[in-house]
Design a protein that fits this description.
The chain is α/β, with parallel strands linked by helices. Helices cover 28% and strands 23% of the residues. Strands 7-8-9-10-6-2-1-11 form an eight-stranded mixed beta sheet. Strand 3, helix 2 and strand 4 form a beta-alpha-beta unit.
Length: 230
């Protein structure tokens, strides 16, 4: 899918982040990367992210005791945690051909690659959702959309997009904790990322990126105005 892919994997305890920091990092990275970059999240504590166009009060009704943050991307409500899902993002700079493709084409390619990788790991049937599977709703994993991943009819992968200045941000969540044989904590991130590229370049977050993300939290993701904007 990508001739070359930079890979950001959390290696240290201090690279576990809360919801606002995760959202801010993706936006900062989208502005800065020069090659397609995959970032795998590590959660400091359980969080719920919700789509750009959703209402906070609806999220709070569904998750009354959870910490929540609005995403820059669309889509529905998603609960996250170290053992609950594999959360990841793709930052694709402007100029990359795939960044200008339609959402339908992008989802089909990306989710298809991941479906193929899952089939090599587990003896399960993995399918891309078709029109007959679509079920609109506010909660991401109860509302399959076209080309989401399904295992035995249940949605296990959802994602959302944001375009900015020709660049493309994808934020995804893979929920397979109850699938027999699946153990995210034992999976090599390098092996998993290999579903998207044969040429992976490990990278680390630097102090400048972290500092810019902290400033963006103060301006946006950590503010009442942002999370209550609708």
């Amino acid at each position: 899918m990508f001739p070359k892919l930079d890979l950001l994997i959390p290696m240290l305890p201090e690279e576990s982040f809360d919801g606002p920091m995760q959202m801010a990092l993706d936006e900062v990275l989208l502005r800065q990367v020069s090659v397609p970059t995959l970032r795998i999240y590590k959660w400091k504590s359980p969080w719920v992210t919700f789509g750009y166009f959703q209402e906070l009060k609806e999220v709070q009704r569904s998750f009354p005791s959870q910490s929540v943050v609005r995403r820059w991307t669309g889509g529905g409500m998603v609960s996250h945690g170290e053992k609950e899902d594999l959360t990841f993002s793709l930052m694709i700079p402007s100029g990359e051909m795939i960044a200008s493709e339609s959402p339908t084409s992008f989802y089909s390619q990306l989710h298809g690659k991941l479906a193929g990788w899952i089939r090599t790991q587990l003896p399960v049937s993995v399918n891309l959702a078709g029109s007959e599977d679509v079920n609109p709703g506010p909660s991401c994993f109860q509302a399959p959309a076209n080309d989401d991943l399904l295992i035995q009819g249940r949605k296990v992968l959802g994602g959302a997009l944001r375009r900015s200045g020709g660049a493309l941000l994808y934020q995804g969540s893979l929920k397979m904790s109850d699938i027999p044989g699946w153990d995210y904590l034992r999976i090599s991130p390098m092996a998993w990322a290999g579903a998207f590229s044969d040429s992976l370049v490990p990278k680390q977050l630097n102090a400048l990126i972290l500092g810019e993300a902290e400033e963006l939290i103060r301006m946006r993701y950590g503010t009442t105005e942002w999370n209550q904007r609708k």
